[in-house]
Amino acid sequence: MIWVEILGRHHDVIARHRCDGVEVRIGRGYDNDVVIDDPFVAPSHLRVFHGDDGTLVAEDLGSANGLRVGDGEALPRVVVDGDRPLRIGRTLVRIRQADHAVAPERAAAPGARMWPRAIALATAVFAIELLSSWLTQTTEQKPSRQVLSLVAIAGVVLVWTTAWAILNRIFAGHARFERHLVIALTALLALSIADELVDLGAFALSWRVLADFSYVGAWMLFAALCYFHLREIGPAHRKLKAAIVFGLGAAAVVTQTLSQYQYETGPWVSRQSYVRKVYPPFLRLVAPQDDDSFFAGAGRLQADLDRARKEEAPSDGYSGIGGDD
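-> C-alpha cells emitted (325 positions)
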C-alpha cells in the first residue's frame, strides 16, 4: 500500500490517495492511479515503485518539467523518504508507505472562549473613551456626542474585522471572525491607553516630546496589529510577515518624521501647541508660571513681532504673522 498526498503552498495536506499495487503512476491523464489537475504536469509524469532493497523510488517518465525535490534541480529518479515533498509541474506531492511513523496525538486543550474576551475588551475601550470625554469636556455635557463617538468606533472595528475575516475565509477556508475581533479590540485598547497617557503627560508634565513623537508608537502598534491578523490567517512565514509589516511601519515613521521636521523648521512656521486635550486643573503637576516670567516672555515676543514687521515679506506674499495684524 502506498499513500500519495497532494500538498498546498504551506505543505498542508489537501488530499490523500490510497493506492494498492506493485507501482503507482501519477499524471494528468485519466489512466493514472492519481490524477493531478495541473497543466504543468505531463499526462504520464511519475512512476512510484519499490526498489530491490524495499525502499520507495519515484521515477520521472520523461516529462517536460521533470521531477524535483522541493525547489532543487530536475532529477531522473529520487529515493522517497516520506518527509521531503516532491515537485511535479507546480504541484507538491508527498509519498509514504502504510507503515510510515506518525507523531503522537496532541492533548486537546479546551477551546478558548473568544466572545466573552471580545465583550470585555469592547467594554474597556468604551469606558476609556467615556472617561476621556468626561474629563476633557469644557462645555455643557452632550450625551449624543458621546454616543455617536462610540457608534463610530464600533463601526470602524466591525468593518476592519469583517475585512480580515473575509481574507481569512479566502486564504484559509474559515473566517475566524471572533479571533480577528479580539485582535482588533486588543490593539484599539492599547492605542486608547497609550493615546490617553500621551495627552495626560503633555498636559500634566508639559512633556512636548510625548506629543511630538507619539506617532512612532502608533505606527508600530498598527504594524503589530497587521502582523497578528496575518498570523491568524496562516502560521507560515512568520518572520517574513513580521519583517514586511514592521518594515512598512518603520518607513511610515521615517516619512512622517521628515515631513514634520520640514514643516516645523520652515522660516515662517511657528510651533503649534502640543496640548491636544485640556484636563481638570488638579491633574496639572507642573507649577504654573509666575507673573514676572509670563510678562518677560510677552516682552520678548513683542520685540520679535516688532522686528518681524520691519523685515521684508517673503516673495510669495505669505507672512507667518498673518498679514497686516
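Residues 318-325 have pLDDT under 50 and may be disordered.
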